[in-house]
Design a protein that fits this description.
By secondary structure, this protein is α+β, with helices and mostly antiparallel strands. It has 7 helices and 15 strands. The chain folds into 2 domains: 152 residues, no CATH class; 131 residues, Alpha-Beta Plaits (2-Layer Sandwich). Helices cover 22% and strands 19% of the residues. The N and C termini lie far apart (109 Å).
């Protein structure tokens, strides 16, 4: 269960810096600056509320984000203000905050935070990191993902019931390939299914397997799901296979999301999927659910699966003439990748008129 914590109010800081509160977590003290700062104006939750939430679900949150490099998604002025993504860990950080150096598709690198314990989660929350955005790799092996991610993203206007239907098809398809999926609400309009895998395949191979899976789900329910990358072509629930490309992250289990009611990404049992509603899972309701049920994804690491079957399906797709699908724009173009422009913006060359042979002048007799 979550680590036991206790907080105490410290003496005010130097003039102009405002008060702070020290939170004791497993023998460490984490200073929370401006603890009363409101991050969720409509719900009224403060920065200290955010810290206490993550401490209440720490074990489950660390199962999803712990031991992995995390991109920091910071909301210094709360959900109504500007936010930014921070790949590089702050230079001013406690000595016990672990970092690891990641290399990105651009060729650049950065040291990212690797949370290992509840104190690290509290420290991140103090930075107004509402969300947990881990990479699908462990810090000890940055080149071989141990998680395949199925991101179900509904097109505007698609009902939540359709997302649930597609999730069930994902469950059945994974089972057909000997894989177990662990569902959770995204905390917004979609749903995620995490699939633990043996860390022996590269990012490109895992993405290829995810694309094959997505195309198989689309084949089974073409009126409900799509793999079309361009928004203008999508109908139904988009299965975002590119979330498995290097340097892509998604909000992990128990992550808070920047919604007015402070929703969270809620781990589910499969028998809950057909009736669940995203609005049921918030910073207010999740701690009691967690205390009662524990982490519903507690066994996720026990049986990592193989993507060999999905890679064989991918190879079959290639033999049948299916080209690679578009990659995000910051990636090098793949040899068999289709054009990187939506159909409405692609140049269409006008058919060239047939060349006429020069006429020959007739000789007069």
């Amino acid at each position: 269960m979550a680590s036991r914590t206790k907080a105490r109010v410290a003496a005010p800081r130097a003039a102009g810096r405002g008060p702070q509160e020290l939170v004791a977590v497993d023998g460490r003290e984490v200073a929370i600056s401006n603890p009363a700062k409101v991050l969720f104006p409509e719900a009224g939750y403060t920065k200290l509320d955010l810290v206490q939430y993550y401490l209440a679900v720490a074990e489950g949150a660390l199962r999803g984000a712990g031991g992995r490099p995390n991109m920091l998604v910071r909301y210094p002025d709360g959900v109504g203000g500007e936010f930014f993504y921070q790949k590089r860990a702050p230079e001013s950080r406690p000595a016990w905050i672990e970092v690891v150096s990641l290399r990105f598709p651009s060729g650049r690198s950065a040291e990212e935070v690797v949370p290992r314990d509840a104190a690290a989660l509290a420290w991140m929350a103090n930075l107004a990191c509402l969300e947990l955005h881990p990479h699908p790799v462990r810090a000890k092996d940055l080149d071989h993902p141990d998680e395949l991610r199925v991101d179900l993203d509904p097109v505007p206007g698609v009902k939540w019931s359709q997302v649930r239907q597609v999730a069930r098809v994902v469950q059945a398809t994974l089972a057909d390939f000997g894989l177990a999926g662990w569902p959770k609400t995204s905390g917004k309009r979609g749903m995620h299914v995490a699939v633990r895998i043996v860390p022996r395949w590269t990012y490109d191979e895992v993405r290829r397997a995810a694309l094959a899976l997505a195309r198989e789900v689309e084949r089974r329910v073409p009126k409900l799901a799509t793999t079309k990358w361009w928004k203008e072509e999508r109908e139904g629930v988009f299965i975002d296979y590119n979330q498995n490309a290097r340097d892509r992250t998604v909000a992990s289990a128990y992550s808070v999301r920047p919604t007015d009611d402070a929703r969270v990404s809620a781990p589910l049992a499969w028998d809950e999927v057909d009736a669940c509603e995203p609005r049921d899972f918030t910073m207010a309701t999740m701690p009691s659910r967690y205390a009662e049920l524990g982490d519903l994804h507690a066994a996720i690491d026990e049986h990592p699966g193989s993507i060999v079957g999905l890679l064989e399906l991918s190879a079959r797709h290639e033999r049948e003439g299916m080209a690679d699908a578009p990659w995000p724009p910051q990636y090098r173009k793949a040899p068999d990748e289709p054009p990187r422009a939506p159909p409405s913006k692609r140049r269409v060359s006008a058919p060239s008129a047939p060349r006429r042979k020069p006429s020959r002048a007739r000789k007069r007799s």
